[in-house]
Design goal:
The structure is a single chain. The chain is an alpha+beta fold. It contains 14 helices and 15 strands. The strands form 3 sheets. It has a 10-stranded antiparallel sheet with strand order 1-9-10-11-12-13-14-2-3-4, with helices on both faces. The longest helix has 15 residues, at about 215-230. It is globular and about 55 Å long.
Length: about 475
């Protein structure tokens, strides 16, 4: 039986903002179609001197700072060669006071995309998938007509297909400015063909291959291509050829089971203050994410996975080089914010480029990055999502101290140092109230707007949206 749905506070002017945040899932506005071939980037200054060795005291202080900045709980794994740090700070359950542990299982959202991309590239190495072949050659019933002839497998992998995201149609109340759908569909099972149908029914965003737009529809389509060429369920293929191949013990697809097996934190969603206090979405039927974002994992398993991948243990060199051939994603000023490859991206840190992905689902966020050779790594999970708030003018999001604290921790973990930052005078640390079992008030406090601007906030990871 579905559980009764609490009533969220209204947000009558949210439609335009959510259509950007939840449906388009664009990184930033004004993305320019400038391609770059970044095969194996320079190692930078990873591990160049003793000062960059792991410092458990500093790393734990970094996690404590994230917690103090407003998140409920964070749990992380950091590695440098054989040296490792596993730490945590805060609460796994705010109602009972149970504390987080470093090894908790967690929904990792779009980090799943790297796993799916690896499985597709493995089939490419076997000659079963041609990355430059039209998608319609594999699944004509899912992407018919001219679009099926223009969009290639590679365009799905690097998000240059121009196919719309399905999130808004899968959770239709988001397009009306409320989060009712999050509760109405908590225990729903939805198939990949229906999800793909939502995205394909929307107008093409741009001519295939000419621009970049993040779309979960791309990765559900890739799952169905895996099904077609292997004759097996794509989640089983990824489990056999990727997860088990590198010996991951805590990583799995949950299927239709809404519960997470094993020890895990409760996962709380604020949706930028619309759900107030934040609601527990630990139990959720993740068929709405599938091969785009349904995986459960741990920080330690993600480090093992990315080390195996970047070290060449999962793909032949040719396929790994193709995976690291990137498309420049730019902000409105023309600056490159990240370089997206085939299910993995590269961004700059104080000690050089780092490779990985971030992910987010309702209540759970994840970020995993590694040095180019996989020797230096960090992965982090946290159990409060969309904690940012809108500024007083209703035009943008206030900077949140937790975002800066998480970036500082990333730099400490990867580089052994935290570069000095100029304090942002506009940053507001608005303490997040503890969630409760009661429905939140339908009236917003006067100092907390319920109207979201038509932008995405500066999240710790570069991607944004309900599934990223």
């Amino acid at each position: 039986m579905p559980r009764p749905r609490p009533t969220d506070r209204p947000a009558p002017r949210l439609r335009r903002a959510v259509s950007v945040t939840a449906v388009a899932l664009a990184l930033l506005a004004g993305l320019a179609p400038t391609a770059s071939a970044a095969v194996l980037e320079g190692q930078g200054s990873y591990g160049k001197d003793a000062a960059r060795r792991l410092d458990p005291t500093q790393l734990q202080a970094g996690l404590d700072a994230i917690r103090e900045a407003g998140l409920y709980g964070v749990y992380s794994g950091v590695r440098d060669g054989r040296a490792r740090f596993d730490g945590a700070a805060g609460l796994a359950d705010v109602a009972t006071g149970r504390k987080v542990r470093p090894d908790l299982r967690h929904r990792v959202g779009s980090v799943t995309k790297t796993f799916t991309a690896v499985a597709v590239l493995q089939q490419s190495a076997k000659g079963r998938v041609d990355l430059d072949r039209p998608v319609g050659d594999y699944v004509p019933e899912l992407l018919p007509g001219e679009r099926g002839r223009k969009v290639t497998v590679r365009m799905l992998l690097n998000h240059t297909s121009g196919i719309h995201d399905y999130i808004g149609d899968a959770f239709p109340s988001l397009l009306k400015g409320t989060t009712e759908s999050l509760d109405e569909h908590r225990y729903r099972t939805i198939g990949p063909a229906e999800l793909i149908g939502y995205g394909v029914a929307r107008p093409q965003l741009f001519e295939p291959g000419t621009d970049w737009s993040y779309s979960n529809t791309n990765y559900v389509l890739l799952g169905e291509i895996l099904r077609k060429v292997t004759g097996q369920d794509p989640e089983q293929v990824i489990t056999r050829d990727v997860i088990r191949r590198v010996g991951l013990r805590d990583t799995y697809f949950p299927g239709t089971d809404p519960r997470i097996r094993g020890a895990h934190a409760r996962m709380y969603e604020s949706f930028y203050g619309i759900i107030d206090p934040p609601r527990d979405y630990s139990d959720y039927n993740m068929t709405w994410a599938g091969t785009a974002g349904a995986l459960v994992s741990t920080a330690q398993d993600l480090n093992t996975f990315y080390r195996a991948l970047l070290g060449g243990d999962l793909l032949p060199r040719r396929q790994l080089d193709q995976m690291r051939t990137t498309f420049d994603v730019k902000d409105p000023t023309g600056a490159v914010t990240l370089r997206y490859g085939l299910g993995i991206y590269s961004l700059d840190t104080p000690c050089g480029p780092a490779w990985g992905h971030d992910g987010g689902v309702f209540g759970a966020g994840t970020w995993a990055l590694s040095s180019p050779d996989g020797s230096r790594q960090f992965a982090i999970g946290y159990n409060l999502m969309k904690y940012q708030r809108v500024n007083e003018a209703g035009t943008d999001f206030d900077p949140h101290p937790a975002d800066a604290a998480m970036r500082d921790y990333r730099d400490q973990a990867l580089c052994g140092t935290t570069p000095p930052r100029t304090p942002d005078p506009t940053a507001k640390n608005r303490p997040t109230e503890a969630p409760s079992s009661q429905a939140p008030s339908s009236q917003a406090p006067a100092d907390r707007p319920t109207v979201l601007p038509p932008t995405t906030p500066a999240l710790p990871g570069p991607l944004a949206g309900p599934l990223r």
